[in-house]
Amino acid sequence: LVLACLVLTGAGAVAVAQVKIAVINSQKALLDTAELKKAQADMEAKFKPRQARVDTLSREIQQLQGQLQSMAGKLAPQGEQDLVTQGNRKQKEVQRLTEDLQADVERERQDILGRSSQRMQEVVNKLSEEKALDVVIDVANTVFVKPALDITKDATAAYDKAYPLTAAAAK
Fold it and tell me: Are 23 and 139 in contact (CB under 8 A)?
């Protein structure tokens, strides 16, 4: 038993080297980059006309529903049916446009995040080498961390330096 304890404590002493650890909020580091902020603004501008079309159609549907309610019993059956048909047609268009818009936004978001995540991983690897870190842990998996161990801002700054926005891209 004593021999086993000596062997275990001896093996433990060998493994007790100073380990340099850092934590990062990878999501925040990535979302705070100039590239992602610009990509978000570009996506909003790109998809704004399509969203405006959906909003316009939704308002038109509400107006048709209001007309049907306010004119209940006053319209000829054919007039009422025409309003219902218009509303149904617009509702189907809104649904189709919304589904297409959501799919396009999600596809573009995934492309951007995939590319940027890969770049951020490269930046964190380089930062880890520069700071001689042994382990970098995402803050999402930690219960407590000293603020001095957080490299989130460093990673964002290094990313922006490694992948600067060009003058044309910044506009």
Answer: yes
3-state secondary structure of 22: strand
pTM score:
0.72
Crossing angle, helix 77-130 and helix 34-70, to 10 degrees?
A: 170
- Residue ranges of the chain with pLDDT lower than 70? 1-17, 167-171
In degrees and rounded to multiples of 5, residue 71 shows phi and psi of -100, 10
Q: How high is the pLDDT of residue 5?
A: 42
- The closest alpha carbon to 124, from 38, 37, 33, belongs to 33
Q: Where are the alpha helices (DSSP H) in 71-170?
A: 77-130, 152-162, 167-170
What is the spatial distance between Cα 36 and Cα 41, in angstroms, rounded to a whole number? 9
Chain segment 115-125, per-residue pLDDT in tens: 999 999 999 99
Give the C-alpha separation, 42 to 57, whole Å.
24
Task: Count CA atoms closer than 13 A to 88's CA, side-chain side.
Answer: 6
